Every structure is written in structure tokens, then in C-alpha cells.
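Hey, resending since the last one bounced:
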Amino acid sequence: MKQYILILTLCTVASSTACGQHHKDADIVIKTGYGDIAIKLYDDTPLHRDNFIKLAREGFYDGLIFHRVIKDFMIQGGDPESKDAAPEKMLGQGGPGYQIDAEIMYPKFFHKKGALAAARTGDQINPERKSSGSQFYIVQGKVYTDAELDMLEQNIIRNQTQTVVMKYFEPHRNKYIELQSANDAEGMQKLQEQVLNEAAEEMEALKSYKLPADVREAYKTIGGTPQLDDAYTVFGEVVEGLDVIDKIAEVEKGAQDRPLKNVVMKIVVMEEK
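The C-alpha cells again:
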């Protein structure tokens, strides 16, 4: 997911308290023409929580749109360039001019339906997995079968194994390039074997990886997007308005998965309960 990810909404009432006083468990209410999305923000991700509240109080999100909507996946917004953007304008790269350090806490927080997470650029240019300063997404996802989750586990093992191997390879990268330039096939082979030996213990431990029981159960019942787990910061969850996410996910879209009719947003911060 190279583009960033986020959401927000419309509120016709001036007072933030009046706007969302019935959402008792929420810290934030995203108001849209399709209804309210009430969200609880996690105290365990304070950098993201505090930044989100700060921007919302400043009115940063007011008038922005859900610029990227993918059914059975997620709805995305928070690009400041989306406000009053022409239909042909490319969106998804804008932000407030800063990033937020990752607060990835998988498996405590994962991409179940209704999860609020921060968008970011890819690992190639963002290996620290820092989040966009403003863009976020809310998960719709889908329900998975046991067989699909078994396959997902195997994919996770393969991906994590590759990550481990690259970690051990990195200190030897320059040496490998030298051997490659010298066409020293035997030296390259020995170096590859050395890297695999160094990584062997961690690779072996990965073979027994299983999804935590509560995570598996959630993906089998309410659904989500497990392929994003342990890669993006999840910092909140929807407590009211899952049906609103479903409605937005159904809208007609054009290029770049942008809704043909703007889904405008405004975020309201709830008063302290």
C-alpha cells in the first residue's frame, strides 16, 4: 500500500459535545453523509492518539473526502489535498508535513473489521514504518475460513523468513557484491550458506507460527484484513457505525478507487467523559 490511508466527516452542529454526545464510548466521531462512525482511540498508541485528536480539534480534516475506497478491504482518507479536489486530481500523497513513529502492537491490536490504522509509504523507502501524519484508513475487510487462514499463516512464515534472511545478509552485502563482481561463484555460495547458518535458529522458530486464537476467531466471525497485520499501526477501533463503513464501501468509484461522488467528512472530538 504505497498510498497513505485515512478518514473523516460532516457535522451540521457547531458544538462538538452536542454533535456526538450519544456516542458514549467514543473519543472521536467521524461524521459523513452516510452516518456517524464513532471511534475509540487506544491509550497504548499515544503518539497516534494525540496527533489525531490535535488535528481534529484544529479542523484539519473538515471538508476532506474518502479518496480511496476498496470494497472488502478498507476506506481511506486524510489527504489535505483532497479538499475541493478536481475529479481528475491524483490523491493519496498529501499530509501535514511530518510522520509519526510506528506504534505497531500486533497481536494486541490487529486489522479486524472497524480497526482504525495509519497509512504510510512502503518499506522500500520507509523501513522504520513511520506513519503518515494525517492519513488513515478504517478496515472493512471480509470474513475468512479456516482454510484461508491456514494459507495466510504459511504466507506469514514465508514473508517473515525472508525478512530474517535479509537481516542476516545485510552485514555481508558489500562482500557479496565484491564476489559477484569478481564472478566468484564458489565464494558467493559459501557466503550464502554462512548467512543461512546464522539465520537458522530464527528461521526454525518461525516454522511453528500460528495466528493467536482470538485473532483467528475475529477474522472468522467479524472479518478484517489480516494481510496488513504487524506492518501498519492500528490505533483505534469503531464502537458504533460499522454499517456506515459498509455503505461507503459500496459507492460507485472511478480511477484510483476514488468515489465518483465525494464522500465528505468532518471529525468531532468528544468531550472528556
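The mean pLDDT is 91.

Sorry for the duplicate.
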